[in-house]
Design a protein that fits this description.
Blueprint (H helix, E strand, L loop, with lengths): L2 H11 L8 E4 L10 E4 L8 E5 L4 E5 L1 E4 L3 E2 L5 E10 L3 E8 L10 E5 L6 E8 L6 E7 L5 E11 L3 H12 L18 H8 L3 E8 L1 H7 L3 H8 L4 E8 L5 H4 L4 H5 L7 E4 L8 H14 L5 E5 L24 H12 L2 E3 L1 H10 L17 H15 L3
Parallel strand pairs: 13-14, 13-15, 15-16, 16-17
Antiparallel strand pairs: 1-12, 2-5, 3-4, 4-12, 5-11, 6-11, 7-10, 7-12, 8-9, 8-11
Helix pairs in contact: 1-2, 5-11, 8-9, 10-11
């Protein structure tokens, strides 16, 4: 069933919240001055924005539309519904701010598929730790235009609505078939017991934009359904283009990990510079500065420009002796932490899917809602009960 049709069916059947957080309907009111228009590209002579009073739409070309900030609650899921028409694949985002008005490093980006007519989209996105405000962004492809008719952002009713939406997106992609390794949970005994006992587990996901996308996949909602009563609180603590080569210095472990007091620390992404020593350094620092020690899981990095073994001849599904995945496996064994070779699992999926790589991406590097469902299902399968 087509992706857009599924989202339309979901929008018609899902429960709506009673409290509206932010909304704008340009068929009822003009684009107000509190929306910001940010020029894109080097050739600013092509930047255009217009409000069509007859049709009630905001049109942007080479301009990013930024909504006024609106109040939110940290770590709350929100239902994002919009009516958009885009010439090419178009980015949208929720950007988060703390109580000082400072932009947070963690965000939520996704994309809109190109269409001739306006389409109604529904997404779910979780706000970030320390976030008190958010803004909605709509950014067309370079040299192309995107039109916005209406946008509404409301608190999610409950986890069931998020799970229902997640399942609807999953139905638009080939099924994820993944057999988790037999030795899993070797270093996650406390996490496993907490899930089985229906307890709360605070998870900090450390890394770059790839780990941010993984944290934005709603994987924890899938895991919670497997363990009745369990509560996974996921905090993405990230900086784009950054790995442990950055986090190991200048007490950044305190800022990005220790302040959140995780029960489980998950380190991932594709920006560690193939430096296992830096990852091991972060692990040592966390253990030195936290009491009790959190359990730790390291993941190899999926997605990225070369994340499709069908077109990237250097992407071998089985790691070679010199592969960074092999080095990670050895380092995590030495450090006695959990290791999930997520890159190989991602590569196996891509190697056997009929869909194009671009179908799972919002840009050449990052996953869209479909790609994030692959990440979510892989991670949920890893955590499923034995």
């Amino acid at each position: 069933m087509p992706y857009l049709l599924l989202l339309l069916l979901l929008a018609a059947s899902a429960c709506h919240s009673s409290d509206s957080t932010f909304s704008a309907n340009f068929q009822e009111e003009a684009l107000s001055d509190d929306w910001d228009l940010i020029p894109l590209g080097k050739d600013t002579t092509q930047n255009k924005t217009a409000f069509n009073e007859m049709s009630g739409i905001a049109v942007a070309q080479n301009v990013r539309l930024e909504s006024p900030k609106f109040p939110i609650k940290p770590l709350q899921y929100y239902r994002v519904e919009m009516q958009v028409q885009a010439d090419e694949k178009t980015m949208w985002a929720l950007i988060f701010y703390n109580d000082k008005g400072e932009m947070l490093l963690a965000d939520h980006y996704s994309s809109i598929d190109p269409s001739i007519d306006f389409q109604r989209y529904v997404f779910y996105a979780q706000s970030k730790a320390n976030a008190t405000q958010a803004a909605f962004w709509l950014q067309p492809a370079e040299g192309k235009s995107a039109s916005l008719k209406a946008i509404s952002i409301n608190p999610a009713v409950d986890a069931r609505a998020v799970k229902h939406w997640s399942d609807s997106v999953y139905q638009t992609i080939p099924s994820v078939v993944f057999s988790p390794p037999t030795h899993r949970f070797q270093h996650l005994d406390k996490t496993k017991k907490a899930l089985e006992n229906g307890e709360k587990v605070r998870v900090v996901m450390l890394g770059n934009s790839i780990i941010n996308d993984t944290g934005n996949s709603a994987w924890e909602v899938l895991v919670e359904e497997m363990y009745p009563g369990a509560d996974l609180e996921v905090i993405t603590s990230v900086r784009g283009g950054t790995g442990c080569t950055y986090y190991q210095h200048q007490n950044r472990v305190d800022t990005f990990v220790v302040q959140y007091q995780p029960d489980l620390l998950m380190i991932g992404g594709i920006s560690h510079g193939n430096d296992t020593a830096a990852i091991h350094s972060v692990i040592r620092q966390v253990r030195e500065r936290m009491e009790p020690d959190p359990e730790i899981m390291v993941m190899s990095g999926p997605v990225g420009r070369g994340g499709d073994p069908r077109t990237n001849v250097e992407f071998t599904l089985q790691p070679s002796p010199g592969d960074f995945r092999t080095q990670l496996a050895q380092m995590t064994s030495d450090a006695e932490v959990e290791y999930f070779d997520m890159k190989s699992a991602w590569g196996e999926y891509m190697a056997h899917t009929h869909a194009s790589y671009d179908y799972f991406l919002r840009d050449p590097v990052h996953a869209n809602a479909r790609g994030r469902q692959v990440l979510a299902r892989l991670l949920a399968t890893y955590f499923e009960p034995e």
